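Running log. JK asked me to keep both predictions on one page so they can be read side by side. First protein, sequence followed by its tokens:
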Amino acid sequence: MPRVSEAHLAARRQQILDAAARCFVRNGFHQTSMQDVIKEADLSVGAFYRYFKSKNELITAIAGEKISQATGLLDQLLALDPMPPIPEILKRLLELVDAAAEHDGTVRIAVQVWGEAVHDPEVGALVEEIYGRVRERAVLIAERARAAGQLPPDADVTGAGAAFFGLVQGYILQKVLLGGTDRRTYVSGVRTLLS
């Protein structure tokens, strides 16, 4: 029996994640069954369960993929010398959010995951670990901003990092729940608050 290539396995896994994302965006996390995802992915039950055993595993993979894009961008910006101003970093992150909203709507899944994290300890641990990576980088941004004089010398970088992270979550919530949230207006408002 021929071995399946790593590229084939990765493509099949992505096929499942894309199908799950479409289902979660369309029907919500709770209203989507594993059967719905299997049907959407156009796979047999056996082929599907080779990759994922539960909806929580699917959510973990989808969230991890999206957060990796955000942490990758933050790592690139942190590597710059000088580091861009905080509003510019926020603008770049929100461009990622808008791209995900326009491309496949997966931003909506983030809000569902946050709500689920309140009731499901497994999802709560996932959210803490995955989003903790973004908040850690936000604290590093605040440290660099303080060192560069963008923040006062006595600024609480942990608090500033948490607030920066909250600005991203706030934008996502407004975009999903209220609609019509404009990135330029939002970043302009943040610039006003920072001044």
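And the second, directly underneath as requested:
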Amino acid sequence: MNTETKILDAAVALLEAQGPDGLTTRAVCEAAGVRAPTLYHHFGDKGGLERALIQRGMAEFMERKRTPPPSADPLVQLRFGWDVALEFALKHPVLYALITEHARAQPALIADAYALMHSRVQRLVDMGRFRGPVDAAARAIWAASQGAQSLVLQGVSHKDIEAVSDLLFEAVVGKLSQAAS
């Protein structure tokens, strides 16, 4: 394992265990078994370390989101992407919160995720399974998914979040599908 990976692994473990306040350069260096100059060499400062954590988290998230879904059906693919997003938020709640915080100031962080979801909605509209306009349908799917994920930040139980997520998905898809009938 290279030094940068070792530092990032230690940082994400600290972040998830202790929250943003536990993510100090001193604590990360101690957990990674490196000295401060090494951390600064790789990341510049704590802000650079945070950005690297976010970039790595988003790369892992998008790799999973781009994994071929179990079906060529765009609705199954849409649900797969929805579930991957919720799974990420549940598995990495503090990293998810950090990404969400940074995405407000830098929407480009989540642009690839939105574009992938939008393309799946586009296919459903093109097939006549959803009624357009595509952008409104995509925003509805995105907003409902983000709403379910936001429950992670409120400390709601996994079971309850998953139940609300299912309800929101079915409600939005049902409404978009009804409109196409």
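Observation for JK regarding the second prediction: The mean pLDDT is 94.
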